[in-house]
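Key result, reporting period 2: structure in, sequence out.
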């Protein structure tokens, strides 16, 4: 759940994907491809940080950019 409680972010390592769900409606809003196999997710006020298996790679997602985006 994002800090503003608007979105639920779900990691799928097998598909190299991050799914963004609307927290109120439970509907899929966006699917993002992550380089590597995402397995860990932490938040700051403005960003989600996604770590991948077997690397030191960390993807950053600007949470403000999620508003208004759809599949």
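The corresponding designed sequence is given below.
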């Amino acid at each position: 759940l994002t800090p503003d409680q608007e979105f639920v972010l779900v990691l799928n390592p097998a598909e190299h994907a991050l799914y963004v769900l609307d927290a109120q409606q439970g509907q899929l809003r966006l699917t993002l491809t992550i380089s590597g196999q995402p397995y860990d997710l932490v938040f700051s006020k403005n960003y989600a940080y996604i770590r991948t298996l077997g690397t030191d790679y960390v993807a950053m997602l600007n949470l403000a950019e999620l508003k208004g985006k759809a599949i």
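The chain has a mean pLDDT of 92. The first strand starts at residue 7 and ends at 12. This case is discussed further under Risks and Mitigation.
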